[in-house]
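Anyone have tokens for Major facilitator superfamily (MFS) profile domain-containing protein? Sequence:
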Amino acid sequence: MSGAVIFIQEDLKISDVQIEVLVGILSIISLLGSLAGGKTSDTIGRKWTMALAAMIFQVGAGIMALAPNFGVLLAGRLFAGVGIGFGIMIAPVYIAEIAPAIARGSLTSFPEIFINFGILLGYISNYVFSGLPAHINWRIMLGVGILPSIFIGGALLIIPESPRWLVMQNRIDEAKVVLQKTIDNEKEVEEKLSDIQQAAGTTNADKYETKSVWQELLHPTPAVRKMLIAGCGIQIFQQITGIDTVVYYSPTIFKDAGISSNTELLAATMAVGFTKTFCILIAIYLIDHLGRKPLLYVSTVGMTVCLIGLSLSLALLGHEPIGIRLALLFVCGNVAFFSVGIGPICWVLSSEIFPLRLRAQASGLGAVGSRVSSGLISMSFLSAAHAITVAGTFFVFAVISALSVVFVYKCVPETRGKSLEEIEVMFDEDKLPGSGEMELADTVSLVPKEPNGA
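Reply: yep, here.
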């Protein structure tokens, strides 16, 4: 959408406010998909919820590509938003539930990896199709979004259902078959199956009806409250540090720095996409080697420095050659630090810290916080930039990013190498020997690490 809006505005003659609505409404409306995704995935399964997400998004992309006016274009964007809401909620949950503990961090980063890869492909398509007439190029830019989701149809023929969801449905034999595909040792399979059954509470299934799940989320125990603060908080901080303004409005930022040609604007934006995609690949390797928390520190501190640098370069050196270079450097640095840490780790944490009975709907609640934050930031960026300048807006983001460093220190635990069942115990002081007065980050040392990583 970042490159397409240049030509949409030219073709459909829409205002800056309509552009803000068009860009930001996707994140706002996606909260409906995220809210519905928890109940849907608990009812029809993780696998088929992903299929539903793909189908809804395809409808939205098709409507946008054929839209004759702003109203129809907005309607297509709404459909796409609902599909994205389902997808961003269910993908990390599914991967966390099927992945072995030793590789869960890197595997749960995959949604963020392919989001970045998709953004990069979007930037490339913007550049490639920008030479076509304005009434055609943006339609192709949006229409090609249908193609990737078609591949999900083929994937559904291969991937299994989540073993933890199967246990929740008392389909124990099917869950065992899935575990046998990811764990070689039969004894380990039996132990893991037993742990999952205990966590799922299959002996008292009525206790975990949907109504009681929402009651527990709205009136949480101290342990669940800590989980909600960590899981939902990291989701919100991921967005309010302004990453979507860079993704959606890179051409606006670079135009403010002094680049005037549409082709050059899209080329600079492509550089941002390449940086973002490359650095997420680094995160795959580091997330299970260094851990979640060290990467979050590097990420949030690095983003803060880059956001301050971007603000100062736009304010003091705008429209000068050195200012353009520094703006590009700091934008690329910001997305690099984001992709190495808070970008992927946000989804990893929110999918692994909640107990099984709450996981789907609590993750959906976290995704709602992310989508609302993203939508509000995206829909207000141009107005804020007009009011306090682009430089001033990014200085505000820098202050928020600095606060995220404090949040990571106070509220986020280290979960590397722990099974989902072990992580649940980390948040519950009653289950930790002598841990009543200890900091959450210190509880890691009290949980024994299984040598097999299960």
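DSSP finds 20 helices and no strands in the chain.
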